[in-house]
TrEMBL record:
It is found in: Cell membrane. Bacitracin is thought to be involved in the inhibition of peptidoglycan synthesis by sequestering undecaprenyl diphosphate, thereby reducing the pool of lipid carrier available. The gene is uppP. It catalyses: di-trans,octa-cis-undecaprenyl diphosphate + H2O = di-trans,octa-cis-undecaprenyl phosphate + phosphate + H(+). InterPro entries: UppP. It comes from Candidatus Seongchinamella marina. It is a multi-pass membrane protein. The lineage of its organism: Bacteria, Pseudomonadati, Pseudomonadota, Gammaproteobacteria, Cellvibrionales. This is Undecaprenyl-diphosphatase.
Length: 267
């Protein structure tokens, strides 16, 4: 059972890293590997993910209202438009990672939560993000969403369960490689987190019910609130600075982090 300081540190880490292209799963695994912290448990995992889910839903509440209304109207026979098609794009792009989690989740948990894997994926996918961002500067990002684009992003997102890959990082990378603008890539990536986090949370909630794990409701409630506030601030600041700073600061951070992790592993 984790204590309050550990819970608050992990909640802040979850909120900061869920939407930045630096891998939240890696940053949550690293403290337990380096500091030998106890596993935070299913209830805590669910709580901090609920917090980040609440943050992105609240931030995009107007967008979600518009696309939901347009989608429901299209189901009732109204002409399809960009807003209604966005829902289908999100559902399509969410499918591959759902299949990965269902069939390979246990393998990833058993074999990929270690320093060599995290260091390697942090470096490799950080460099790929840098390549995509530099390419996006040249191509100027003129491509819009389509079913083919959504499928490509979804297939890329299937790698996200591996610690160090970064769900937001790999989806933004894929979008930039397809010549989407940074803001359009980030918006679709963040909207795509909603079905992904919801599905993952539902699976973990079912596991929690079956496990009968004891729950410290005050601790996980505070952790959820901390992760929500941190995640909301992170989304707002990231989108505000995106065109100004691009992805390279996160690429440099990933490269530095990877070399530190390799050094710790080899020490």
């Amino acid at each position: 059972m984790i204590d309050w300081p550990q819970a608050l540190v992990l909640a802040v880490l979850q909120g900061l890293t869920e939407f930045l292209p630096i891998s939240s799963s890696a940053h949550l695994v690293i403290p337990s590997l380096l500091l030998e912290w106890p596993d935070q448990g299913l209830a805590f995992d669910i709580a901090v993910h609920v917090g980040t889910l609440a943050a992105v839903v609240f931030y995009y509440r107007q967008d979600l209202r518009l696309i939901s209304i347009a989608w429901l109207r299209s189901l009732a026979g109204a002409p399809s438009n960009g807003d209604s098609r966005t829902v289908w794009y999100l559902l399509l792009a969410s499918t591959p990672v759902g299949l990965t989690g269902a069939f390979l989740g246990g393998f990833v948990e058993e074999h990929a939560r270690n320093l060599p894997v995290i260091a390697s994926t942090t470096l490799l996918f950080g460099l790929l993000l840098g390549f995509a961002d530099r390419r996006a500067r040249v191509t100027a990002g003129s491509r819009s969403l389509s079913f083919g684009v959504a499928l490509f992003i979804g297939v890329a997102q299937a790698l996200a369960p591996v610690p160090g890959v970064s769900r937001s990082g790999i989806t933004i990378t894929a979008a930039l490689l397809l010549n989407m603008s940074r803001k359009d890539a980030a918006r679709f990536s963040f909207l795509l987190s909603i079905p992904v986090i919801s599905g993952s949370g539902a699976v973990k909630a079912w596991e929690l019910i079956q496990s009968a794990e004891p729950v410290n409701w005050l601790l996980i409630g505070c952790a959820s609130l901390v992760s929500a506030i941190t995640a909301y601030a992170c989304i707002a600041l990231f989108l505000r600075l995106l065109d100004r700073i691009g992805m390279m600061p996160f690429v440099y951070y990933r490269i530095l982090l990877a070399f530190i992790l390799f050094a710790v592993w080899l020490a």
